[in-house]
Specification:
Strand content: 5-15%
Largest sheet: 5 strands, mixed
Order of helices and strands: HHHHHHHHHHHHHHHHHHHHEHEEHEEH
Structural class: mainly alpha
Radius of gyration: 25 Å
Distance between the termini: 57 Å
Oligomer: single chain
Helix content: 55-70%
Number of strands: 5
Number of helices: 23
Strand order of the largest sheet: 2-1-3-5-4
């Protein structure tokens, strides 16, 4: 095996190891991960908020036993593949050892470590953006039309994973149009490749059409409830933090596009960045939407810096440069990752508070960062729901109804009773109710204990209503979430649920 391959494998192994060791075992899965895992039980060509690719990976995880190891493995794998694409990009740009190491280290010791920890569409999204840039680079260098076909396939993969990649396409097309590479529009293979991409994504588009294009409803809700609160200055500020330790490498890439002659033919990449980032700023997007733009520029910047540091008198700076991303990353290990127990964080909150990490969406400081609190209390909830279910004789006629997707997904994942299929009127769960069997009892999971209001509201519909328990984990964001047992329905519960589901869908 070549030395380069050994080093590359070592760096990939390092990335995998970091993905696992930077999470303390006391933390459970994140609320967002549960929904994606449950999609494996409901395979379709689309979902309310995401395309189908994540559900396919969830199905593979399910076949492998649905263990936490595999849940963490796949986002880490997509992160490792992103590293591989950056490495191959540097080789395509004729970069040497220094460039290869700088590009790889910049990927490994960055915010991608945090993103690649969570089982979400974000990790394959970043891979898709980086890979699409790579296929365009290969086409520019070779003018071989096969790379247009690969670009079409890559776009389709990205689209079926997360619609976010459409913004990259919107930024790329005008960049190509105003560059010398506009001749691509006269290449019939370009249109064939676009046709292939359209064919591959067509099943998802048909699903969207048949279901009333829920993606637009989701985007509208996102704009009204979340993006309206996004500050454009904060978006720009966040861009500086994603690759803070290697920001100088990215900046070097943009300088190279302007003054480094061998890179002039690649200015299309810099232009596409400007168009795409401007679009995100205009739309007041969340900061992490744009993170897929950066890995490819680490490759360009690393190669350019290698040229700048090629003189005998300044070669000694290379080890120093390689150490900067690592040194900048080390302080972040202490606060950016769930690698300290909740008790330790509460006892030593100073650094977390200094960076504003303890402030939640409610504007108040809490014991844990909000993301960490979203990884607590789920096992306790599932165990107590199991106990509630065990207290009901007619288990086959019992529905577990939750207030949000995190509760429903966590119960389905952690419950020892695999016959439990918790649902919610929230997210995709609203489509997963099984109303073909009579429901007589309901285990109701409420976000907030409303001083027994559920007892009053539900009593006319059931013979017996009792509060069974609650989440007591003091560090959980769901602390206080209550469990009610509603027995022996006096009315047609199925009919009531059908009506409520129809009303909620019509409102959406």
């Amino acid at each position: 095996m070549k030395t380069k391959h050994i080093v590359l494998c070592g760096l990939i192994l390092l990335k995998f190891v970091l993905q696992y060791i930077l999470i303390d075992p006391v933390y459970e899965l994140h609320r967002d991960e549960f929904l994606h895992l449950d999609q494996a039980q409901h395979l379709a060509w689309g979902y309310t908020s995401v395309p189908p690719f994540t559900s396919w990976i969830s199905w593979i995880i399910l076949q492998l036993g649905n263990g936490v190891f595999w849940v963490k493995f796949f986002p880490a794998l997509f992160g490792a593949l992103t590293l591989l694409v950056v490495w191959k990009t540097i080789e395509e740009l004729k970069g040497g050892w220094f460039a290869l190491l700088l590009g790889a280290i910049s990927i490994v010791f960055s915010s991608l470590i945090r993103i690649n920890m969570l089982y979400q569409p974000n990790s394959p999204d970043i891979l898709a953006w980086t890979l699409l840039f790579f296929t365009i680079l290969k086409y520019i260098n070779t003018e071989n039309s096969k790379w247009l076909w690969y670009a079409g396939i890559t776009f389709a993969f990205g689209f079926l994973n997360k619609y976010n990649i459409v913004f990259l396409l919107i930024g790329l097309l005008p960049a190509i149009l105003i560059s010398e590479h506009r001749t691509i529009f006269r290449n019939k293979q370009f249109y064939y490749a676009m046709g292939l991409a359209a064919l591959l994504v067509m099943p998802n588009l048909i699903w969207q059409y048949l279901n009333g294009f829920p993606v637009f409803k989701h985007l509208d809700e996102l704009a009204r409830t979340q993006l309206v609160n996004v500050n454009r200055f904060d978006f720009v500020k966040e861009q500086l933090l994603f690759f803070m330790g290697s920001l100088f490498v990215i900046l070097a890439a943009f300088v190279a596009f302007v003054i480094y002659k061998p890179f002039r033919k690649y200015r299309i990449f810099g232009l596409s960045f400007l168009f795409t980032i401007s679009l995100f700023i205009y739309l007041k997007a969340k900061g992490y939407y744009a993170i897929g733009l950066y890995p490819i520029f680490l490759a360009f910047g690393a190669v350019y810096l290698e040229q700048l540091l090629s003189g005998k008198r300044i070669k000694y700076l290379r080890p120093v440069i390689l150490g900067i991303p690592v040194l900048m990353f080390l302080p972040m290990i202490q606060i950016a990752f769930p690698n300290r127990t909740p008790q330790e964080i509460r006892q030593h909150p100073e650094k977390y508070k200094a960076f504003g990490l303890l402030r939640w969406e409610d504007g108040k400081d809490h014991d844990l960062p909000q993301d960490f609190a979203d990884m607590q209390g789920w096992k306790e909830l599932a165990q107590k729901v199991d106990l509630a279910m065990a207290s009901i004789p007619e288990k086959e006629h019992t529905l577990v109804l939750c207030d949000n997707y995190g509760q429903a997904g966590a119960i389905n994942y952690y419950s020892a009773n695999k016959n439990i299929s918790a649902v919610s009127m929230n997210a995709d769960y609203i489509n997963w109710f099984k109303l073909d069997q009579e429901i007589r009892n309901v285990i109701r999971v409420k976000e907030i204990d409303d001083n027994g209001k559920e007892l009053v509201v539900s009593k006319p519909y059931f013979d017996r209503v009792e509060r069974f328990g609650e989440i007591t984990n003091e560090f959980a964001r769901e602390k206080g979430t209550s469990i009610y047992v509603l027995r022996n329905g006096k009315v047609d519960i199925n009919q009531i649920l059908r009506k409520e589901i129809a009303e909620r869908k019509s409102r959406k």
